[in-house]
Amino acid sequence: MSNCCSIDPNAERTPCPVCDSTGPVIGDKPVKAHLPDAADGQWQHCATADCPVVYYLGDDTVTTEEVKAQVAHKALDKPRPVCFCFAHTADDIAADLQANNGVSTIKADVKAAVADGFCACEYLNPSTKCCLSDIHRTIKAIEAARPTR
User: Fold this and answer.
1) Once rounded to an integer, what is the mean pLDDT over residues 87-110?
2) Which of 38, 59, 84, 132 could form a disulfide with 124 if both were Cys (CB 3.0 to 4.6 A apart)?
């Protein structure tokens, strides 16, 4: 996984024009993965789950309807993607845990792939961050939701 060199660490953060929440600056590479003609600039990611905006640059927005892949925390009525590089959903991880006595082969496979440089989170994940922590949190949530015996 490479660092996204298009992100200016000193870029001014502004609030989302729809929900007024201030998201992290992510640059333009993740946006261009969905919309190649998007304006160059210091785009931000809106992390508010019920806001339709995924990315914004001033008043320019990219919504959940415009992105190519469903956005994890904004996928309220569809299978929730957890890993964008390898297309694993929360449902996939739950099934994996069930099939492997509570051990996630998906997590192990993704961890190995990341270590070998076979991911593109900075382009595919709307947050531009590695999904391994999302996979870990998803596993913990699935485990916590299991009925105790």
Assistant:
1) 93
2) 84
Residue burial 11-38, b: 16+ Cβ < 10 Å; e: rest = eeebebeebeeebebbbbbbbbbbeeeb
Cα–Cα distance, 65 to 15 (Å, whole number):
20
123 CB contacts (<8 Å, ≥6 apart)? Answer: 29, 30, 33
Equal fold, 1-68 vs 72-145: no
Could you count the other beta carbons within 10 Å of the beta carbon of residue 100? Answer: 12
16-26 confidence digits (pLDDT tens) = 999 999 988 88
Does the predicted model carry a pTM greater than 0.70?
A: no
Task: Give residue 143's Cα distance to chain centre.
Answer: 21
Phi, psi of 57 (to 5 degrees): -140, 100
Looking at CATH, the fold of the domain delimited by 72-145 is given as: Arc Repressor Mutant, subunit A (1.10.10)
Work out the end-to-end distance of the chain between its first and last CA atoms, rounded to an integer number of angstroms: 41
Please name the residues in contact with 8: beta carbons below 8 A apart, sequence gap of 6 or more: 25, 27, 42
**CA-only gyration radius of the chain, Å:** 16
